[in-house]
Amino acid sequence: MTVVDHDVTTGVTAAVQAARAAAPGWAELGFTGRSRRLRAWRRAIARGATELAGLIHREMGKPLPDAMLEIAMALEHLAWAERNAEAVLGPRTVRPGALTANHKCVVEYRPYGVVGVIGPWNYPVFTPLGSIAAALAAGNTVVFKPSEYTPEVGRWLGEAFGDASVLGVVTGDGRTGAALCRSGVDKIGFTGSTATGRRVMAACAESVTPVLMECGGKDALLVDADADLDAAADAAVWGGMSNAGQTCLAVERVYVHRDVHDAFLEKVVALARGVRAGEHIGPVTMPGQVEVIDSHIRDALDRGGRAVLGGPDAVRGRFVEPTILTGVPEDSAAVTEETFGPTLTVTAVADMDEAVELTNRSRYGLGATVFSRRNGEAIARRIRSGAVSVNAFVAHATVPALPLGGTGASGFGRVHGADGLREFAYPRATTAQRFPSPVPLTSFRRPPWADTLVRVLIAVRHGWR
Ligand code: NAP
């Protein structure tokens, strides 16, 4: 049964109606006009970056320099969408093919109309902006529902844009998101956990509203015997602990070649020991997540794992110190479920075949990191995930031209780059007859010799080679 909260629904309906009314005008601005407006928005965000970083820090707790880095990354993607929308989505002619040589053929990407964007709190600017920038650049108006933990960040972004009918912001809890899914928007761009993603898909299925699903992850870092161990350890600690581990692409599992396991582990522990909760990393944002982190650590230890750093004592209220676990069984929650805390499991493997096999066993498939001097790209090709960074952590997510998204339980569809722009537009095919066909194939006036010609065509074009 769907429970409808009328206050919530009314607010969402009003925002969607305003966006619907503004959609034709926004689309008619064309790529150039929209690009100008997006540039003005980008500049407003850049000018207010200090204030915005302060808001991020206050609402979800990440250190100010990390908040500033998040804004910088988001602006790079916004700039890319603003500058490349026309080249990616604008009309282009394609070859007509043998049966329709007398036609001009054009493909173009048209806006859906109104797009609902539902965002998480862990990267409250970078993550939703990936969808919002592409949706606006493609010619849609947007209604954005930020996380209930970061409503002011959402409002700030909307105010910086300066036109609530083109970019509306609706705040509230999950009920607001649910109402947005049922509001008649033309597409939903969702970023959040896999569990909520399932609910969003179910709600959108009722009206066949298309969805983009950017969900959770359980990313692995693979360390080969020939890896630069200092760089790999640095990537493991930053990838696992930064933002208190609350990153969809966080490193949560490490598979390391047994020949270098001990040396690598020593380096990781030494580095992680220097990372302190409350100083280098913020608190766990959602109080309920502390329990999940604690239960994953305890389960790992109960089942034979060992904490070489941290452990249950590392969980001190909402501040969780880095925890490094070894010897954790592959079927324990710390290996199979998204922990979303500053924890790492480090597991020795016989070779990279085993590392790839264990990496791919996960139901998630968002990103991965590989460290190897000689074989990085070859190992990367064998990993089932939306992206892999070789010899660096998460470099792919910062490259504006590269798509970001997952496979399996990590979702489907893409933000960023050309694929991210196409995500918020539907392809539209047009043909225009330039002159009548000398061979009327699709007419009841088709002469018998035309049938012969079709048979010859099949043989010549497809039967001989
Ligand atoms: P979440 O709890 O799933 O919430 C995500 C968004 O969905 C929030 O705005 C939430 O609103 C809203 N929501 C909740 N229930 C809803 C419903 N029934 N219908 C529609 N919307 C609903 O996720 P989160 O805790 O904010 O974010 C962390 C998760 O996001 C992690 O799993 C992380 O891996 C994932 N993530 C993925 C990516 C990626 O690119 N793949 C990026 C960042 C984060 P409320 O907050 O108000 O409940």
Automatic annotation (TrEMBL):
Residues 11-426 form the Aldehyde dehydrogenase domain. InterPro entries: Ald_DH/histidinol_DH, Ald_DH_C, Ald_DH_CS_GLU, Ald_DH_N, Aldehyde_DH_dom, Aldehyde_DH_NAD(P). This is Aldehyde dehydrogenase. The active site is at residue 214. Belongs to the aldehyde dehydrogenase family. It comes from Amycolatopsis tucumanensis. Keywords: Oxidoreductase. It comes from the Bacteria.
